[in-house]
Amino acid sequence: MHPSWQTHVVNLGIRLTGMKRRSSSADRTLRHIERLRHRPARFAPPRFLGHSMRIRLSQQDGVPVYTIEPRRAEPRFRVLYFHGGSYAYEITLYHWLLIRHVALAIPAEVTVPIYTLSPRATAGTTVPAMSALLERLLTLQGGSPLTVMGDSSGGGMALAVAQELRDRRAMQPAHLVLISPWLDVTASNPRLREIEPRDRMLGIDGGTAAGKLYAGALDAHHPFVSPLFGDLRDLAPIAVFSGTDDILNPDACSLVERCAA
Fold first, then answer.
1. At 113, phi and psi to the nearest 5?
2. Cα dist. 12→135, 158, 177, 202, 254 in Å?
3. Pairing mode, if any, of strands 63-70 and 53-60?
4. Is-contact 143 204, C-beta < 8 A?
5. CA 4 to CA 118: how far, in whole Å?
6. HSE of 140, CA atoms in CB hemisphere, 13 A
7. Degrees (nearest 5) of the Cα angle 79, 256, 159?
8. What is the pLDDT of residue 14?
9. How high is the mean pLDDT of the chain?
10. Distance between CA 118 and CA 233 in Å, rounded?
11. Distance CA 236, CA 239 (A)
12. Angle between helices 123-139 and 153-167 (to 10 degrees)
């Protein structure tokens, strides 16, 4: 099957962002994160989302939490969404568009925490905080199934949070949906180097630098940081979506193999 014209347009757009060049170097990645510390990016939903969605803002232990649901449909499911961005980059327009699509298509009420980014917060504080948020939502779910979703680093966080709830002997969500999840910040699988030239967005060296920043005082193999190395027993059913030209794909395949075992 040949790539569609839409795929070519998207690939060109990704190249023009310069993300690949920045993430291919640890120094460039860390300098960019440092700049963002002084000039944080906007995180609020774009104004046009309010035309079709009801949007509420609350606080959970100092973290802004948005709740989004369709204006013209009663939500049948609930979703907790963790956005990607190497744990250091803020939620983007493209995340909000995906969240809107999920809310309308299901239809669902989607909860979106604007978790504190590294290095201001690290895995040792972020995973417990997001686990507490999920535990509260599960307690208040009122019979509606709750799915935890996340993309890239948000996918890694979703799995780490589910593992933490299991260790607390707390309730699990109905499902985990991991979209191109970042599961091992150490990039220890040698297949990543084979795929890196084909990946138009991510680079290994910048990613591992961001991962170490997020790890903070924890070892990079700690399940809060790299949940691929955590215990996968007694978790909610997991669905994983991954592309073969994505450097995160080998770890997604390893997750599926470990779950099957």
1. -80, 135
2. 41, 30, 28, 14, 30
3. antiparallel
4. no
5. 37
6. 10
7. 40
8. 65
9. 93
10. 29
11. 10
12. 70
- C-alpha span between 21 and 47 (Å, rounded): 31
Write out the two tokens for 12. Answer: 């060109």
User: Using CA atoms, how far apart are residues 228 and 137, in angstroms rounded to an integer?
Assistant: 25
Copy the structure tokens of residue 229. Answer: 């190395």
pLDDT tens column, 189-233: 999 999 999 999 999 999 999 999 999 999 999 999 999 999 999
Residue written as token pair 């190497």: 86
Residue 68 pLDDT exceeds 70:
yes
SS3 annotation, the chain: CCCCHHHHHHHHHHHHHCHHHHHCCHHHHHHHHHHHHHCCCCCCCCHHHHHCEEEEEEEECCEEEEEEEECCCCCCEEEEEECCCCCCCCCCHHHHHHHHHHHHHCCEEEEEECCCCCCCCCHHHHHHHHHHHHHHHHHCCCCCCEEEEEECHHHHHHHHHHHHHHHCCCCCCCEEEEECCCCCCCCCCCHHHHHHHHCCCCCHHHHHHHHHHHHCCCCCCCCCCCHHHCCCCCCCCEEEECCCCCCCHHHHHHHHHHHHC
247, 253 contact by CB (below 8 A): no
d(CA 201, CA 29): 13
